[in-house]
Specification:
This protein is an alpha/beta fold. The protein is built from 5 helices and 5 strands, in the order E-H-E-H-E-H-E-H-E-H.
Length: 124
């Protein structure tokens, strides 16, 4: 069983992601802003991060960049899921170190496929 961190300030989006991912059986940890997410990531050591960009205190771009600068997190998959849908947003997200970039609303099957691809032990 892997540990997935969801860094997302929308309770609705968090519940939707949790519902989509529940059949995979992984542990899910949630943070509602970028600052809390960074603290939790460093203590919980998740296997995968689902990261919103527009969040209070520290945005997803800043958090992604900070994590990639830390050797402990260079290999952790970071899946940005955001409402920012311009090609320049996608480019900037990938440039900050995101493993992949999806635009909301995300399809349940697409999210599960991505998580399974990043966490080969997933069975859902």
């Amino acid at each position: 069983m892997a540990k997935i961190m969801i860094a997302e300030d929308s309770p609705t989006a968090v519940e939707m992601f949790k519902r989509y991912l529940a059949p995979l059986g992984h542990e899910i940890v949630v943070a509602s802003d970028g600052q809390d997410a960074e603290t939790l990531i460093r203590s919980e050591q998740p296997d995968l991060l689902i990261l919103d960009i527009i969040m209070p205190k520290v945005n997803g771009f800043q958090l992604c960049r900070a994590l990639r600068a830390d050797p402990s997190f260079t290999e952790m998959p970071i899946l940005m899921i955001t409402s920012m849908d311009r090609e320049s947003d996608r480019y900037w997200g990938m440039k900050q170190g995101a493993t992949d970039y999806l635009v909301k609303p995300v399809d349940a099957e697409v999210l599960v496929e991505k998580v399974q691809a990043f966490l080969p032990g997933s069975d859902g």
